[in-house]
Fold each of these.
Amino acid sequence: MAKIDAVMGWKKLDLGCVIRQPGSSRTFKTGDWRSQRPVVDRDKCIKCGLCWVYCPDLAMVPAEEGYYKVNLDYCKGCGICAKECPKDAITMVLEED
Amino acid sequence: MAKRIGMEVSIAASEAVKLADVDLIAAYPITPQTHIVEHLSEVVADGELDAAFVPVESEHSAMSCCIGSSAAGARTFTATSSQGLALMHEILFIAPAMRLPIVMVVANRALSGPISIWNDHSDIMSEQDIAWIQTFAENGQEVFDLVLHAFRVAEDSKVLLPVIVNLDGFTLSHVIEPIEILDKAEVDKYLPPYKPKVRLDPRKPVSMGMVGIPEIYTEAKKATDEALINSKKVVLKAWKEFGDLFGRYYNPVESYKTEGAEVILITMGSISETAMTAIDKMREKGMPVGLVRFRLWKPFPAPEFKKAIAGVQTLAVVDRALSPGGACGPVAEEIKAALYAERGRPKVYNFIAGLGGRDVTVENFEEIVSKAFTYAKKRPKQLYEMIGVREI
Ligand code: SF4
Ligand code: SF4
C-alpha cells in the first residue's frame, strides 16, 4: 500500500490524525491491489464515455482524440467499465500477463 | 461568592454545565439522567445559557452531534444512562480518536435484561476500552466539582480527550444534598475559554476522522493510548488547582482508615460513603479494616493505588457489575492485572453487590469484610461471589 505512510511513526501523527492538506488523497495511490486491469481496444471504441461515467474510482479518464484510458494508479480492477462498455471494447487482463 | 444550598444532584450537575458556559448540548432523556437534560433545556429556553440545545432522536445521534460540534470547536456536553450509553457505543470510540474534548455525565444504571431503571455500574463497565478519561463521584458536591474539572482537563491543550463523569443513578442523581455552588467569576478563574488547536473551519479546511489503513491504525491507537495515559498529569494538576482555589482537594484514589488495616475494602461511587460508616463500626469493634476508593478510573491510577494498599495482605473488591462467565468483576479484574507482577502482592477477593438497584448496606460490607478475613486463612472455592443473592 501507500509507501509514504508506511514509515510514519505514532509520534509523527498529527493530533487526532487530522489532515491539513486538502486533496492530499491524490497522493495515496490505491491501485496496487488490483489483480486485473482493463485494456481498451480503440478499434471497437465509439468514444461514448460510459466507462468514464461508470468507473467508481474515476480511474477511466479522457485521453487524446476523445478516447478513454485507464489511470492505473487508482484502478482497482473491478471490471465495471468492461461490463458497461456497449461495444465490448474493454477486456480485463490478468495483471501478471 | 459560593453559596451552600440544598439542591438535587442532577440540578447541581446541570448548574455546573451552565457555569461552564457550554456552546452546545445534544442529548436524549433517559432515566435516571433525565433531570440533568431537562434542567439544561430549561436554562437554554429561558435564556440563562446562550447555547444550542439539540433534542436528538437517539443517543447514537446525541454522540454523533457532539462529535460534529466539538470538531467545530464548540464546548460540548451530553449526558446519558444505561441503554442510552450502550446505544452510543460505536460513536464513543471516535471522540478520543479525533481528540475531541466532549464532556459527558453518565448517571449509572443497570443494563437490560431484565429491564431495570435502577443503579449499578454495568452500563459504564461495558465501556472500558473507549479511551475516555473517567471519574466516579461519591456525593453531590463531587458531581458539581468533577463536571467543572472534566471541562478543564478535557480541553487542556496537553490532553484534548473526552471525559465521562460517573454518578450513581437515583442514589446520587435524585437526592437533595447541601452543595456549594460556585459563582460565575470563580468558575471563570478555574476554567478558561476553550481554544481548539485544530477545528473544522471553512477558512482553513482540514479533514477529520479519516480512514486508518493497516499501515497507520496501530500508530493511531498508540497515539490515543499515550494521550490517555499522559492525561493523568493534567487530571492531578487540575484537582490541585481546584483545591487551591476552592478548598476542596481531590485525589485519584482516596484512603480511609487504612493505617494498620489487615483487610482493605475497595469501592467506587456513592456506596463508598456507606462503606465508611461500616468501617467506623468495624473499627470500633477493633477490626483492622480500611477503605480505598477510586475517583479516577481511566487512566487507571496504578501507582497511586499500589501506594494506597501497600503492605496490606488482603483486598476485598466490591464490583457493581457482573462479568458473566469471566474470572471476576471488572474492577477486580483491573486490580488483579495491575498487581500480578508485584512482589508480595495481596490476595484479592471479589464480591459483586448492588446489582440493578439493590441496596448495599453496612451489614453487607460487614459480611464482605468478615468473608475476606476467612478467605485469607482458607481459600474460597469460587473466583468471585454475589452478595445477598438468594441461594434457593
Ligand atoms: S476496472 Fe473498475 S476501477 Fe478500473 S477503470 Fe474499470 S471501472 Fe474503473
Ligand atoms: S464505454 Fe467502451 S465504447 Fe464507450 S468510451 Fe468506454 S471503451 Fe469506448
Amino acid sequence: MVQCASARLDASFAALSDATRRGVLEQLGRAEASITDLAEKFHMTLTGMKKHVGVLERAGLVTTEKVGRVRACKLGLRGLEAEAAWIETHRQLWDARFDALDKVVEELKLREKRDGPDR
Amino acid sequence: MGQIGSEPTIQNGTMVKRESDRELVVTRTFDAPARIVFEAWTRPELFMRWWAPKSMGVPLLSCEMDVRAGGKYRLEFGQDASNAFAFFGRYIEVTPGARLVWTNDEGEDGALTTVTFEEKGSKTLLTFHELYPSKEALDEALVGMEGGMPEQFEQLDALLGSLGASVGGQ
C-alpha cells in the first residue's frame, strides 16, 4: 500500500504549503490552543481558522478534541501520520522479505519430500 | 499469543505492530513445518536469499552465522566492498526449530531480537520481536538505511523540524 502512505504525505505537504497553517503548527508546537485562540492570534475569522485546522487535521498533523464548549488543538504529528508511515515502512520491508522467504521455504519443502528429512 | 477461543481471523499477510514504545512485533504464517522455516533463518546461504529483498535497495554482500548460544553472526550490506556496512551480534539463545534470540551490536541503540517458530498443523506462525533500549532508537530504526524511508518523509521531517515541531511527541 505504497499509495496509501504517499497519499498521506501528499496531504501533509498540501497542509504545509500555506503560511498560516505553518504558523498554526509552530504555535501548537509551543502549546495547545483552542480554535478561538488561534483565530485571534492570526487575525482571522473563526470559520477561516476552522478550515485551516480541518486541513491540518486531515493530514494528521493536528488533532482536535472538544473540551466542554471549546475545541482544543494540538500537534498530531508523531501521532497518526508519523506512526502510520512508520508502520507502513516496516511492513513493506517485511512483506518483501517474507515473500522471498516463502520461495526458499517452498524449495526446502520440495527437497525434503524428495530426499526425506535431513535429521 | 495463541490464545484459544477468541481466535482472531487468521491473517496470512504480514502483520506489523508497535507493541510498545520500545518493541516492534512482526508476525507471519508460513506454509511449512517449523524446522524448515527455522532452517531458512539459520543457514547463511538460505538466509542471504531473502533477508535483503530487491526493494530494500541494498544487497547483502556476505553473511556469516555461528548459530549456537554465544556464537557470532555478521552481515555485510552494500553495493560493493568499498561501501559496505556491517551488522553483527551474538546469539543468546538457540532452540532448533523453535526459538532464536540475538543481540544487535553494531551501534549503541541495538535491539534484542527474538524470533519464535510455532508449528500450527502443517503451518508455522513466525513471530519476530525486537526490544530497543529506548523509544527513540525504535523510532529511528530503518531510517536512513536501505531507502526504507521514503524521501518525502525525510523532507517532511526536516520541514517540521524547522517549524520547531517537537520531535518524539509528548
